[in-house]
Amino acid sequence: MIELDSITRNLLKQIAGLHKIPDGAVSFRRNGKGEIIRSTAHIEIKKKEDNPGINIYVHSSCQNEACHIPVVVTNEGLFDLVYNDFYIEEGAKVTIVAGCGVHSGSSSGHNGIHTFHIGKNAEVTYIENHLALGKGEGKILNPTTIVNMKEGSTMTMNTTQIGGVDFANRKTTANLKDKALLTINEKILTASNNIAKTDFKVNLIGENSRCKIVSRSVARDKSKQVFKSNMIGKNMCFGHVECDGIVLDNANIDSIPRVSARNNQASLSHEASIGKIASEQLTKLMTLGLSEKQAESKIIEGFLK
Amino acid sequence: MLELKNITYKIVEHGKEKVILDDISCVFDDKCLTAITGHNGSGKSTLTKIIMGIVKPTRGKIFFDGEDITKLSVDKRAKLGINYAFQQPVTFKGITVKDLIDITTGEENSTDKACEYLSKVGLCARNYLDRDFDKTLSGGEQKRIELALALAKPGKCFIFDEPEAGIDLWSFDKLNNIFDNEKCYIVVSHQERLLKKADKILVMENGKIAKYGEAKTVLKSLGSGYCERLKEGL
Q1: Fewest 10 Å CB contacts: which of A48, A122, A297, B180?
Q2: Closest residue of B to A245, CA-based?
Q3: Does residue B121 fall inside a structural domain?
Q4: Which residues of B touch A290 (CB under 8 A)?
C-alpha cells in the first residue's frame, strides 16, 4: 500500500472522485513514475518497454468493468510525457476513468498521448478530468487522444478541464468505421490568464458512422479559449457539432466548427453560440430569491454540469 | 398589502420619449385575487415587472406591507414574499426541474415533496424532476413548471403574467383552483373565466388605469364579449 499525501488525495478526489486507490484494474502514475499497476482477469495493464506509459488490453470477456488510470504531478518543474495505448477487444464493455491533477507553485505539467484501438461492437466510456491547483503560473496539460473505431463500436468521451490550467492544447482525432458511434461531451472552464485550445478532427469513414460533439465552455477574467472542430463525412454518415460558450469579464472565445462532406450521403451540421449569461436567466433566479452572484454561479454550474 | 403611488415609466424610442405607465396609483389587497386586463401594449406586464423590481420606474414609489421597496433589488423583493411567474418561462442549460424547486424553496426537497409541487399544476411529477428545464420541454410543460415554482416559494403576494397562455383547458381549470382566499394574487389575463373568478379587476388603457373595482361591477361596465374583443385586438 502506498502512502498518499493530502495534496495527492485532494487531486484524486477532484479528478476521479476517488478517496483512495480503488480496487480493480488500476494504473497510478505520480511525478513521472508508474507507482501502481494492477491487472484483473479481464483487463491487463502492462508497462511499455519503449516509451513511458502503459498498454491496456481489455479482453472480450470484460463486461462493464472499470479501469482507473489517474496521473498526478506535484513536483515543481516536472513535465511528464506519457503514451497510453488501449486495445479494446471485440464486444468488450469498459469504463476508463483517466484524469490528471497538477499541484505546484511553478511550471509543471503533463502531456498524455492516448491511443484507442476499439474492436468491433465494443463499448467504451472514457472519462477524463483535468485540474491544476497551487499558486504560480505555467501549469500545462496537453492531452492528445487518437481513437480508431471498428465496425459497430461505440465510444462516449466525457472530458472536463475543471480549472487552474494555465495552458492546454487538447487534440482529438477519431476514425470511425461502419456503424461506429462516437459521442464527445467536453466542458472547459478558464479564468485569470488561462489559455485553452481544443481541436477535434473526426473522420466518418464507414457507412452509417455517427458522431456528436457537444462542447460547453465558460471563460472568465482575461482567459482565452479557441474551439476548433472538423467533421469530415466520407460515406453515408451523420455528424453534429454543438459548441456553446459563456464569456465573462474580458475573456475571449473563438469557436470554429467546420463540417466537410466528401460524399453526397453525408449529413453534417453544426451550431455555435457564444455570449454572456442571458439577463433573463439571472432575473429568473433572482425572482426565486438568489442574489445576482449566486444566480451567476448556479447558471455556470449547471452549464458545465 | 401592496401599494403603488404615482408610478410612471418612460422609455426613449426612436429618439422620442414614450410613456408606458402614466402616474399609476392603486392598492392590491391581501386575501384578494386581482385580475389585470387590457389591450396588448396597455402596460399590464410592465406594471407587474415594476412590482417585482425587474423594471425600475422613472418616478413613483412602491410600498409592500408599509415598507418602501422602490429601490430594492429583485431578490430582496423575492425574499420579502413577492413571487413572480413569467409569461414566457426562462429556460436553462443543465439546471433540472428539481434544482429549480430546491432553489425556490431554499432547501433540498425529497422526491415526494418535490413531486407535490408539480402535481399541483397537473404534471405527472416523477417524469420531470431530473429533466433539464430547457427547450426540450414543450411550451405547455415549461409554463406549468413556471407556475409550480411561483407557487412553491413561500410568499405573500403572487404575480402571474398570463398564466393561462399555452396551457390546455384541463390545466386552466386546475389553475383557477389554486387561487385561495389567503394571499394577494395579481394575475394578468384575457380570460373571461379568470376575470369572473377574480375579486377585483383592474383595466389598463394606454398606460393608465381605466377601471378598477369589484369584479362584478367592472365586468358589467365592460359589457359582454369584452375578452373576445381583447383577443381580436378590437
Answers
A1: B180
A2: B93
A3: no
A4: 75, 103
Identify whether A170 is part of a domain.
yes
Q: What distance in Å separates residue A302's CA from the closest CA in chain B?
A: 4
| Count of the separate structural domains present in chain A | 1
Q: Which residue of A has its CA nearest to B88?
A: A280
- High-pLDDT (> 90) share of chain B, %: 69
Q: A286 vs B99: CB contact, 8 Å cut-off?
A: no
| Mean pLDDT along residues A19-43 | 91
Distances (CA, A) of B189 to B34, B39, B197: 10, 10, 11
The model's pLDDT over A82-104, given as tens digits with 9 standing for 90+, comes to 999 999 999 999 999 998 888 87
Domain count, chain B: 1
Residue A116's domain spans which residues?
Answer: 6-277
How far apart, in whole angstroms, are the C-alpha atoms of residue A281 and residue A304? 16
Q: Which of A167, A164, A169 is nearest to A135 (CA)?
A: A164
Q: Which of A216, A280, A287 sits opposite B78 (nearest CB)?
A: A287
The confidence band for B230, taking pLDDT boundaries of 50, 70 and 90, is: confident
Give the strand pairing for B67-68 and B16-28.
unpaired
How many Cα neighbours within 13 Å face the side chain of A294? 12
Other beta carbons within 10 Å of B90: 17
Identify whether A302 is part of a domain.
no
| Gap between the terminal Cα atoms of chain A | 34
Q: Which three cell numbers stand for residue B96?
A: 433540472
Residue B58 has pLDDT above 70, yes or no: yes
Tell me which of B190 and A232 has the higher pLDDT.
Answer: A232
In a domain, A119, yes or no: yes
**Assembly ipTM:** 0.93
Of the pLDDT bands very low, low, confident and very high (cuts 50, 70, 90), residue A249 is: very high
Residue A289 is classified by DSSP as T
> Pairing state of beta strands B67-68 and B59-64?
antiparallel
- Residue B33 is part of a domain; what is its CATH number? 3.40.50.300
Question: Measured between alpha carbons, how far is B48 from B54 in angstroms, rounded to an integer?
Answer: 9
From A295's Cα to the closest Cα of chain B, the distance in A is 10
Residue B157: list chain A partners with CB under 8 A: none
CB atoms within 10 A of CB B108: 10
CA-to-CA separations, A255 to A194, A195, A244, in angstroms, rounded:
17, 14, 9
Which residues does chain B have within 8 Å of residue A189's beta carbon, measured at their own beta carbons? Answer: none
Grid coordinates belonging to B222: 365592460
Inside any domain, residue A160: yes
Distance of CA A241 to the CA centre of its chain: 16
Range ranked top by mean pLDDT from A1-5, A124-128, B38-42, B172-176: A124-128
Residue B10 is placed in which grid cell?
Answer: 418612460
The upper half-sphere exposure of residue B140, i.e. CA atoms within 13 Å in the direction of its Cβ, equals 10
Q: How far apart are CA A114 and CA A92, in angstroms?
A: 19
Going by their DSSP bridges, the two strands A108-118 and A71-73 should be labelled as unpaired
| pLDDT tens, residue by residue, A274-297 | 999 999 999 999 999 999 999 999
